Amino acid sequence: MRWPDLSYLTWRVLGRHLAVFRRTWVVNLSFNFAEPVLYLTALGLGLGAYVRPIAGMSYLQYLGPGLIASSSMLSTAYECTYGAFVRLEYQKVYQAILATPVSLDDLVMGDILFGALKGILYGTVILIVLLVLGLVTSPWALLVPPVLAVAGMLFASLSLIWTGLFPNIESFNYFFSLIMTPLFLFSGVFFPLDGLPPFLRELAWFSPLTHVVNLTRGLVLGRLGGLPGDFLWLVVVSVVLLPLPLRLMRRLVLK
Amino acid sequence: MAGVVVAKGLVKEFERVTAVAGIDFEVRAGECFGFLGPNGAGKSTTLRMIHCFLPPTAGHLEILGLAVPGQCRRIKRHLGVVPQENNIDPELKVLESLLVYARFFDLTRAEAIERAGELMAFFGLEGKENERPDNLSGGMKRRLTIARALINKPQLLLLDEPTTGLDPQARYQVWQRLFRLKEEGVTLILTTHYMEEAAQLCDRLVIMESGAILASGEPEQLVADHTGREVVIVGDGALRPDEVEAVAGNLYRDKLVLGQDLFLYTNSGPELLAALGNLGFPRLVLRPATLEDVYLRLTGKGLEE
Lengths: 255, 305
Known about the structure:
The structure holds 2 protein chains of 2 kinds. Chain A is mostly helical. Chain A has helices at residues 9-46, 59-90, 93-98, 104-132, 144-165, 171-185, 198-205, 208-221, 227-241, 243-253. Chain A has one domain (9-253). The radius of gyration of chain A is 18 Å and the shape is globular. By secondary structure, chain B is an alpha/beta fold. Chain B has 2 domains: 5-218, 3-Layer(aba) Sandwich (Rossmann fold); 228-288, THUMP domain-like (Alpha-Beta Plaits, 2-Layer Sandwich), CATH 3.30.70. In chain B, strand 4 and strand 5 (66-67) form a beta hairpin. In chain B, helix 5 (138-149) runs parallel beside helix 6 and helix 8 crosses helix 11. The A-B interface holds A 7, 9, 12, 15-16, 19-20, 23-24, 91-93, 95-103, 254-255 and B 14, 51, 53-55, 72-74, 76-77, 79-81, 83, 85, 87-92, 96, 100-101, 103-105, 148-149, 152.
């Protein structure tokens, strides 16, 4: 196996993405922030009025931390599919950066870091909304951003793997309908997995989002049981996945 | 002193095609070296191997005394690359785009601002600092792309078809800058399918087709060696070659059939023209031979086909 050719220039790639993001962040953030707030209002308040408390939590309390995780996941996924592909194929920004001392591994790693950073940012915005609404009941919530960082690395790798395997703009629709939407619906964001048939419940264990939701909900509400296991799951899977986007994107760029 | 670029038996194969089929060349410090040839000849692929974008399939490639691909980071530090398509960051303003790029070469912000200012002045882009790249004209975008490639004061500047798609004025503005860079001692390597560009800019060049080098040398020397001083084009001459042969067989060095026309390569154009004058051909043209004729002779076909 090839050892990745990484250097400090990875951070310069991240810096370039941030310079662009600085131009667009207000629009960017408010759009991505609008959707979870709509869910929170419609489902948390509207539907929640008819839902009986779940393990002592009101439905709004239950749903809110789940939306931190899903919002974070989706923003990373958009960045590392559409965002990365546009830079590569339409803007040719990849090619421009590769003419500098930056290596291809630096470049892909910079994209992963930026994807993860967006995940932290969009998740933390929801956390702040929950805080304002008085739905954060534990100081353990301070650990939510680091958890989102690990989750972000994982979802960035996953999305770039798809981009490397199916590099065209139509294929990203399938990524979202076939992978992201099932994760979003069946990872315990909206309802406890206990009610599902045993087969689906076991399947949900394989969803990374399940573990992120367990962590964000546990930390926000101060229910820490089982969380180290979830965190370990995320760390192991993100480390295992990391080499794949580096290899697949190399094949894609050097065609 | 060893060449700035030394290539021996350089090969690049893709899955189904051999883009570069084992070529040798050497680029000397301070010269402008050209790769001339039609689309698909392997010019851009060669250039991409030189700037470490594509790893060679086989052969030896050395840039500034450093081996490809092992020393790519160090090599790229001293290179400027102008790709075929402008790839200026569309989401950043002009100056910011240069400053961001400078960071990849470890320039401090102060150094980058100074260097970007010099380059914007040199390329006639003053006052455009806060423009979006999309608002610039084609010629300006091209000059900005070249300016960006110079942010690290490269020893070697690679230009992939620097003026394709530009109008004559914009093309001339680019040429002027390239002349001045050469005077300042920057080694230039460019690909082009414009004969005039190659003749004006290049000290030495190679003519490529189908991944191979057909000829190499100084432009004038290539013309002298492969064609002669002049060309007489005989309209419909290919329909009556025997008559031409009979009256003027000793006045030309070589001939080429292109459609119905006959191209005669010669060092005694006026005499040849006079000899053919009475045969009643619909068209007789005498003009100096150019690289285009060298290319036509070597490949037997037109460049723009």
